[in-house]
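Readers of this paper often ask what the protein records in our data store actually look like. Such a record has a labelled line for the sequence and another for the backbone structure tokens. The tokens are whole numbers drawn from a learned vocabulary of local backbone shapes. We quote a single record here, exactly as it is kept in our systems:
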Amino acid sequence: DDGVAFLVDALQSNTSLWNLNLSGNDGISTQGKISLLKLIIDISSIKATLQSNHTLTNVKVSDETEMGDNEDEIQYLIDDIAKLRGSPEEAGRQKMIWAQLDNGMRAVLAELQGVKHSVFSEID
């Protein structure tokens, strides 16, 4: 997963690569796949969501034939999120609405990304 971490770090400021196909790389763990998911939609804060990579529109991490249940869910989420089209700014706005305002989607992403903090928990 060191290679995935290096790749994710390098792609944080990506503004030209649209397609990334890593299928067939057997060494990518579930945590590595979650890191790639977080690259395209980091829900740890509103700012992090807006600063996620909005240029990548096609990210393939797993072949359908090699996915387990958790990997299937991660690839499904990556596919759905990467489909958000338009300019990077428009994709960022769409991701923001989808990840920060859709409670069901936020819960799924929060569990995968290990986000336990919620702004609503501070309102009492």
User: Anything to note?
Assistant: Strands lie at 19-21, 58-60. The longest helix spans residues 69-82. Helices lie at 2-11, 30-40, 46-50, 69-82, 88-101, 103-113. The longest strand covers residues 19-21.
